[in-house]
Amino acid sequence: MVAVARPVWAGNLSFGLVSLPVGLYTATDSHTIHFHQLQRGTSDRIRNRRVNERTGDEVQVDDIVKGFDAGDEYVLVEPKELDEIAPGRSRALEIAGFVDLAEVDPIFFDKTYYLGPRGTEYGKVYSLLEQALAKAGKAGIATFVMRQHEYLVALKAENGLLTLHTLHWADEIRDPKKEIDTLPGRSKASDKELKMAEQLIGAMSMTWDPGEFHDTFQEKVASLIEAKKTGETVEKAEAAAEPTGVVDLMEALRASVERAGSPKASGGKATASGKASASSKAAAKKPPAKKRIRSTPKEDLSGLSKSDLYRRAAAANLPGRSQMYRDDLVKALSSSPRP
């Protein structure tokens, strides 16, 4: 029997005079590998405890209250007092209005939840709101209280269901000009540099498929753990690429476009502009050229860096590339057919 997920919050979603009992469900999971803290040289666990800093005695959770530092004294607040002042006793999710999705800057979005009706009898109201939001291309903006915190949220229609996205408050968004003192402003790029950069973006354009991407670092952490269990060693990561200087910027762009758009790197799919060139179309019509390419010995890929290999794999639309290590990429690219 499959266990049914419990909502992290339950209450009434209202818009106008329409009220819909809903439950809020966590939409994402973390696959981070967690470690215990141990004292070096032993297998002794290190644990965090709630300790009275004056007496050094451990304090139980029930004996802990919240205290606000008011300067010369602490103002004590009980957890139940926070619940009592929560708007609507933490059970109301009232839509203040609807906005165009494009108006909400992505920087405001924080965490995503699924929203479900609290009973099959409310399915029609739920579906009506979902369909209306999808057709209008709008999001409902609301505030509500959960776990003694008030949240600003956006209600959206996505793939046949309602989702709730917590948003940052306006005063939580930092001004980048104050945070970063090295911003270049509107530096003037030359027409050639701009055109070459646009060509590079076109050559590296791809279809968004989130399933193609995986947390390779966590996979390497798992491999490291397995290797250490058996006394083996693992390959160290490659050094980060050197920064591109202003002097060789144009050359770096040109080389990148040629690499991303060449038949060798892209599997003959496209040139840097994303379209097959006239010469490549003409060559495709000539059978003799095909024979000459077939007889060409395979390129030695062993000297390329992993980032270069991955670019070629992406250009050739090689499936599963995001999960491959460097040797896997070399093997897959070497065995893949060349034009």
Main traits of this protein?
31% helix, two-stranded antiparallel sheet, 7-stranded mixed β-barrel, 339 residues, alpha+beta, 11 helices, 2 domains, Ku70, Chain: A, Domain 2, extended
Largest sheet: 7 strands, mixed, barrel
For the record, the count of structural domains works out to 2
Describe the oligomeric state of these chains in a short phrase. single chain
Give the averaged pLDDT, no decimals.
80
The count of β-strands is 9
Q: What is the N-to-C succession of helices and strands?
A: EEEEHEEHEEEHHHHHHHHH
What structural category characterises the helix and strand content?
Answer: alpha+beta
Shape: extended
In DSSP terms (H or I, runs of 4 or more residues), the helix count works out at: 11
**Which value, in Å, is the CA radius of gyration?**
29 Å
